[in-house]
Design goal:
Elements (H helix, E strand, L loop, with lengths): L1 E8 L3 H12 L4 E4 L6 H5 L32 H15 L3 E2 L4 E7 L2 E6 L2 E10 L6 E2 L12 E4 L13 E5 L3 H12 L4 E4 L4 E2 L3 E2 L2 E2 H7 L13 H5 L4 E2 L11 H6 L3 E3 L2 E5 L2 E4 L3 H23 L19 E3 L5 E6 L3 E2 L28 E3 L16 H23 L1
Parallel strand pairs: 1-2, 1-6, 2-3, 6-21, 8-19, 9-10, 9-19, 10-15, 11-14
Antiparallel strand pairs: 4-5, 5-6, 7-20, 12-13, 16-17, 17-18
Helix pairs in contact: 1-3, 1-9
Enzyme class: oxidoreductase
GO molecular function: oxidoreductase activity
Organism: Mesorhizobium album
């Protein structure tokens, strides 16, 4: 049986950031990754994907951005290369292709059963990421019809069957894929639910400049009126392109993308859409207006401009046939759930999610990192995971110190 004081499960940006922090304070540890370093960036995203945060915002602990394009947007392959370089630079003890099958609490810590044998550890950190298990609603109702894939399985327009595409979900992934397919000449229908519209740039700066300057991204959970509601907020309708262009419902309409309401059901070879498109658009417009006005007040100047609102189609689609050949592919940009079946039930809440307060669970020695709103608004962002990693490393240090004193 292999041993380590701390086992970090997952070698994405969160796990690697914590590895750096633990290494700096001399805590012996290992990082177990079921695939390769940054596996989800490699295998669960489309080929043209670029990070939606600017380069200056993507630094990890000990490695500030030092390139010549701080306002640019790195592509996923280049980002994976930076993760690999990070591992090499700090000699992170990563073991790839080791899947953790179970982690069981014992009197001395934890025993982990893995695909490469057993490990023991005094502490375990779950850094498996917020985007774990793709969610596809109505999966059983669409069997035998068009090709059904999750957004994480989409690679490029040329790898889909010819014909029309329905995309369900209008957050970050949905609008980016819709944009790419429309530009490739595909007929695209986009099912729109709750979404967050923001401009790529405002007052001559990237929108994240203002969100960071205002302290919005670093807002802790206890500063939020409704943390659980905040956790359920959809991702931003943003894309990282060299031309810094917006990608949202308005730009998609200009490309010929048809907008529809939420999918409310599938039966008899038809998808039924809710008549809520106008309501969803209005809610997003109002939220955007409030935030941009807040930025303007923060900047201490008069309002810098007004974004054109998204036009609500006068004739809105209510149903769409899945049998007449007009739709050959459905892409579900409907988010993810987490899979914690390898953890003991005591670590989980009633909803099956890992229960924690700021990354500290009720199970002694078990911690979480890299999940959405773990400690603050940017906890699952590349540039936000570093401060969380430092905090969790300090928690682990205190825990191991207490455990050592008890053993003595």
């Amino acid at each position: 049986m292999k041993r380590a004081d701390v086992i970090i499960v997952g070698a994405g940006q969160a796990g690697l950031a914590l590895s750096h922090c633990l290494g700096r304070i001399g805590i012996e540890h290992a990082v177990l990754e079921r695939g390769r370093i940054g596996e989800r960036w490699r295998s669960q995203s489309w080929r043209s994907l670029r990070l939606l945060t600017p380069n200056w915002l993507n630094a990890l602990p000990g490695s500030p951005y030092a390139g010549d394009d701080p306002d640019g947007f790195i592509d996923k392959s280049a980002f994976v290369a930076t993760l690999e370089a990070y591992v090499g630079r700090w000699r992170a003890p990563v073991e790839c292709c080791v899947e953790v099958l179970s982690a069981t609490r014992t009197s001395n810590g934890f025993v982990l059963d893995t695909s490469a044998g057993a490990w023991s550890a005094k502490s375990v950190v779950v850094a498996t990421g917020h985007c774990d298990r793709p969610m596809i609603p109505f999966a059983s109702e669409t069997k035998g019809g068009p090709l059904n894939i999750h957004a994480s399985q989409y690679r490029s327009a040329g790898e889909l069957p010819p014909g029309g595409v329905l995309i369900v979900g209008a957050s970050s992934s949905g609008v980016q894929i819709a944009d790419e397919l429309a530009r490739a000449g595909r007929r695209v229908t986009l099912s729109v639910g709750k979404h967050t519209r923001l401009p790529r740039r405002w007052r001559g700066k990237d929108i994240f400049f203002w969100l960071c300057e205002m302290g919005f991204m670093a807002q802790p959970l206890d500063a939020l009126a409704n943390p659980e509601s905040a956790r359920r907020q959809p991702s931003l309708q943003l894309v990282g392109r060299s031309d810094k262009a917006d990608v949202d419902l308005a730009t998609l309409q200009a490309l010929g993308v048809e907008l529809a309401g939420r999918v409310r059901g599938i039966a008899n070879g038809e998808i039924a859409f809710a008549d809520d498109l106008a309501t969803q658009i209005a809610a997003a417009e109002a939220k955007q207006a409030r935030l941009l006005a807040e930025i303007d007040r923060f900047a201490g100047e008069a309002r810098s401009g007004r974004r054109e609102p998204v036009a609500v189609p006068s004739a809105r689609r209510q149903r769409l046939s899945l049998t007449d050949g007009s739709i050959r592919t459905i892409i579900w940009a409907t988010g993810y759930s987490r899979s914690f079946g390898w953890l003991e039930p005591a670590a989980l809440g009633a909803d099956g999610e890992l229960a924690h307060q700021g990354g500290v669970t009720s199970v002694p020695g078990l911690y979480a990192l890299g999940f959405r709103f773990l400690r603050k608004r940017d906890s699952n962002f590349i540039g936000g995971v570093g401060t969380d990693a430092q905090a969790i490393a300090a928690e682990i240090c205190r825990y191991l110190d207490r455990k050592g004193r008890q053993a003595a």
